[in-house]
Amino acid sequence: MNFPAELKYTKDHEWVRVEGDEAVIGITDFAQRELGDIVFVDINTVGDEVAANDVFGTIEAVKTVSDLFMPTTATVLAVNEAIDASPELVNSDPYGEGWIIRVKLANPADVDGLLSAEEYKSEINA
């Protein structure tokens, strides 16, 4: 499994890539493998400020639906339109083309409290 060192991670299996005061968020390689074939991503929080650890959407696989949790308080700016037409991108490229949302961070320093790649690997026993 792949866990890019430049990203931050949550115990809920989201990753965060900070770009200034914005960030891109998706689910980890571990999470997409656990879910299996992803068929739909539902995000209805664009324009909303979502508090840390609150649900910002859901991700649906063939056999289950899982909540997506906001890693740090942020306003949802955009949803990856490519995954509307091709949700399987979350499976095939979770850290690239399969990103889920772009957000404006309420406090970029909050990201420092998230897990490093090594800490996340420990968390999932990888």
TrEMBL record:
Pfam families named in the record: GCV_H
Lipoyl-binding domain ranges (all copies): 22-104
Any one GO CC term of the record: glycine cleavage complex
Cofactor(s) required, per the database record: (R)-lipoate
Entry keyword Transmembrane: no
InterPro entries per the UniProt record, alphabetical: Biotin_lipoyl, GCV_H, GCV_H/Fam206, GCV_H_sub, Single_hybrid_motif
Cofactor note: Binds 1 lipoyl cofactor covalently.
Segments passing through the bilayer: none
Alphabetical list of PROSITE patterns matching this protein: BIOTINYL_LIPOYL (PS50968)
Positions carrying N6-lipoyllysine: 63
GO annotation, biological process: glycine decarboxylation via glycine cleavage system; protein lipoylation
Quaternary organization: The glycine cleavage system is composed of four proteins: P, T, L and H.
HAMAP family for this protein: GcvH (MF_00272)
Annotated NCBIfam families: gcvH (TIGR00527), PRK01202.1 (NF002270)
Described function: The glycine cleavage system catalyzes the degradation of glycine. The H protein shuttles the methylamine group of glycine from the P protein to the T protein.
Similarity remark: Belongs to the GcvH family.
Protein name from the UniProt record: Glycine cleavage system H protein
Gene: gcvH
